[in-house]
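Title: Prediction job returns without error message
Component: structure pipeline
Severity: low
Priority: P3
Assignee: unassigned

Description:
Job completed but the reporter wants confirmation the result is attached to the right record. Sequence as submitted:
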Amino acid sequence: MTDARGTPLVAQITAANVPDGVPLLDLIDAIPPIKGRVGAPRRRPDAVVADKAYHSNFREVMLNVMGIEPLLPRRGTDEDRGLGVLRWVVERTIAWLHQFRRLRIRYERRADIHQAFLSIGCLIICYRTLKPSL
């Protein structure tokens, strides 16, 4: 999960046979507090943009209950609502992660080691993204 600029907020690995939308709510709950303006730190985004694989009525209702606007196109329709204009940021971040050899092809058998390399890759991307502002 990334923010609107492509900075990774949460990265989690799953098994290959898990559908994309299953860990969506867990990823939203795993977002750390983000400091910014005066007041309590933000813990949830205003909206979630994803592709058709993430849509289900349950997830849409749960996101509405959490106060998050779900921008999820429905399955079985050609309607995309122009969300590709917004989703390319996530695709770019995934391409940045694939620049790291250990993440492009999975060499590790243990999931915790692969998760550690994914976290290190996200840290490097965050550092490169936020370096001009530091």
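Comment from assignee: result matches the submitted record. Residues 111-130 form the longest helix (20 residues).
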